[in-house]
Write a structure and sequence with these properties.
Blueprint (H helix, E strand, L loop, with lengths): L2 H58 L4 H6 L6 E3 L2 E4 L1 E2 L8 H4 L2 E2 L1 H13 L3 E3 L1 H10 L7 E7 L3 H14 L4 E4 L12 H9 L3 E4 L13 H19 L5 E3 L7 H9 L4 E3 L7 E3 L9 E2 L4 H7 L5
Parallel strand pairs: 2-6, 2-12, 3-4, 5-6, 6-7, 7-8, 9-10
Antiparallel strand pairs: 1-11
The chain binds zinc ion.
Length: 302
């Protein structure tokens, strides 16, 4: 054996350690990047929805009983508050202010649903609304609609069992690229909710601002593509869409109609009046995050 070979042989264990260290470092930094990226995305989403929340509260308070009563006069227009929930889980001390203003504890969510029953509200589905628009199938008195956005895992873990306990149905708007990703629901979980009577709605593929997409093919793919993926994987028609960030314009609405959706949930500023003449512009509001505020927005007497 030559001297050079002998030196190499002696160095081998050290080289192996070095290689191991390099691989370890790469893995850790990749992990840190992924977590940071995910958190940043969640935070951005939370911030945006939070700003909508503030506006929705301001607007919602102005919807009066007279407006609700007046709706009976005009055909196929009805007062149906569409509530939007995002996060239902125990609160953590590390939660940012934005997340905290957007999240409900399971106890609060449970209390809100109890309040709805006690105050005489009847939870309806987008299917009920569609039937009312299409053929006048009557809705119950004091109808209200529950929806969840983005497909967060905590919705399956915490909100789904509470919905079942109350016998309420809700619609879960998911953006398809996130399904199965860390922190989001899996296809199997979506199927289980669907089988339990929940509705799965489309919320685009990648959760972009649809109004900012210049390429018509890309816009179409976000709208029609997400519908196709959901229908293929869940084996049921997907007829309701929610615009990411509640943002839409005429070309977005045209694609939503052309893709075959029957209804679409729009911005967060409308007070709850929905009309058959505008099935792709159903206004919504973020659900109040405290039981007190919730009971004030949805009183027993209305
Ligand atoms: Zn969203």
């Amino acid at each position: 054996m030559g001297a050079r070979a002998a030196i190499l042989l002696r160095m081998l264990p050290r080289l192996r350690t070095l290689a191991l260290l390099v691989v370890l470092c790469a893995a850790v930094s990749a992990g840190v990047f992924l977590v940071a990226h995910d958190l940043l995305g969640t935070y951005r989403l939370a911030l945006h929805v939070f700003s909508q929340n503030e506006a929705a509260y301001a607007e919602f308070g102005t919807v009066s009983a007279e407006v609700a009563a007046g709706s009976a006069a005009s055909a196929r227009s009805v007062y149906v508050p569409i509530l939007v929930y995002h996060i239902v889980r125990p609160s953590y001390p590390s939660d940012s202010a934005a997340v905290r203003r957007l999240a409900l504890t399971p106890e609060t969510f449970d209390a809100e649903l109890s309040h709805l029953s006690e105050a005489g509200y009847r939870v309806v589905s987008f299917g009920d609304l569609e039937a009312y628009f299409a053929s006048g199938t009557p809705l119950p008195a004091k109808p209200i609609l529950l929806s969840f956005d983005d497909g967060w895992q905590n919705q399956f873990t915490y909100a789904f069992p509470i919905l079942k306990k109350h016998g309420f149905s809700a619609t879960f708007f998911v953006f398809t690229n996130a399904i199965g990703r860390r922190g989001f629901m899996t296809w199997d979980e979506l199927k289980r909710m669907r089988e339990a009577g929940m509705t799965i709605g489309a919320h685009s593929r990648s959760h972009p601002y649809l109004t900012k997409i210049a390429d018509p093919a890309a816009l179409w793919d976000e709208i029609a593509g997400s519908k196709a993926v959901l229908e293929q994987r869940l084996g049921v028609p997907v007829t309701v869409f929610a615009y990411p960030f509640g943002q839409y314009d005429p070309s977005v609405v045209a694609d939503v109609a052309r893709a075959g959706y029957r209804l679409a949930r729009g911005d967060f500023y409308a007070g709850g009046m929905v009309s058959a003449e505008r099935p792709y512009e159903l206004g919504a509001m973020n659900a109040p995050t405290t039981t007190e505020l919730f009971a004030k927005k949805f009183p027993a007497a209305r």
